[in-house]
Design brief:
Elements: H1 3-28, H2 39-48, H3 50-84, H4 86-100, H5 108-115, H6 119-143, H7 147-155, H8 160-198, H9 203-212, H10 216-245
Keywords: Cell membrane, Membrane, Transmembrane, Transmembrane helix, Transport
Transmembrane segments: 61-83, 95-116, 122-144, 175-198, 218-240
Organism: Rhizobium rhizophilum
Length: 258
């Protein structure tokens, strides 16, 4: 039996054990579902109300992915500028740090004033939440290019754009995919945050409505859906990373004899 198989087996077993312990403790301690519903109650809620939840799932997924893709585009452009220009670094970095320090819940009302309620504030909030990690990691990746290598390439006639495209950007791939995994979860946070304030659709709105009606199992069902979507997106980027930047990862699937 390989080491990788055993590792995945025990990981799955421990995850199931966590939910099993949750179920047993709720029953043994007679915890009310208004405080903490059991996993079985959450799954029953998901099954019973899936037809109602499905349009809201699609809405949240759509706004999150649009905001995420825009955030990736903006983050790549700004990160490339900051990573290749000292003047851009000195000018933009303080502004970006200041913007990232602003609680995004305070930005949502501004988006509502500008664009009204609906999908646009959710998309912009997702963008605002996820682009900063990409900027930082792209700029960091470009900064790892050795000055000696740049000097050699310049002596061979390579332009600054050639160095960026053929050396700088490939070296940022491990940093880029690391930032994508973080940014994807931040994008979901941004969309749901906006939906709780400025939308009548989406998982965030469902959770807010359920909370006001003391429907705690439905609130936890919404949390479970968001967790599953985040894990699936994280796993997708991990697979792409192994294809594109597998050279930067240590080999951890060592096999051993059973």
């Amino acid at each position: 039996m390989s080491y990788a198989f055993r590792r995945r087996f025990w990981a799955g077993f421990l995850i199931l054990a966590f939910f099993g312990l949750w179920e047993v403790l709720c029953i043994a301690l007679q915890v009310s579902d208004l405080v903490l519903p059991r996993p079985s109650q959450i799954m029953a809620t998901l099954v019973d109300r899936f037809d109602v939840l499905w349009p809201h799932i699609l809405q949240t997924l759509w706004t999150t992915m649009v905001g995420f893709l825009l955030g990736v585009t903006v983050g790549l452009l700004i990160g490339a500028c900051i990573g290749t220009s000292r003047i851009a670094y000195d000018t933009a970095y303080p502004l970006l740090i200041g913007f990232s320090s602003i609680p995004k819940v305070a930005v949502v009302p501004i988006f509502v004033l500008w664009f009204g309620s609906g999908s646009v504030p959710a998309i912009l909030t997702a963008l605002a939440m996820c682009f900063f990690p990409i900027v930082v990691n792209i700029a960091t990746g470009l900064a790892t290019t050795e000055p000696e290598l740049e000097d050699v390439l310049k002596s061979l006639g390579a332009s600054k754009l050639d160095i960026l495209w053929n050396v700088g950007l490939p070296r940022t791939m491990p940093f880029f995919f690391a930032s994508l995994k973080i940014a994807a979860t931040f994008a979901f946070v941004g969309s749901v945050l906006s939906e709780t304030v400025a939308s009548n659709r989406g998982i965030g709105n469902v959770m807010m409505t359920a909370s006001s009606n003391f429907d705690v199992p439905l609130v936890f069902a919404g949390l479970f859906i968001l967790a599953v979507l985040g894990v699936l997106l994280y796993a997708a980027f991990s697979l792409i990373e192994m294809r594109v930047a597998g050279w930067a990862n240590r080999r951890n699937d060592l096999t051993t004899t059973a």
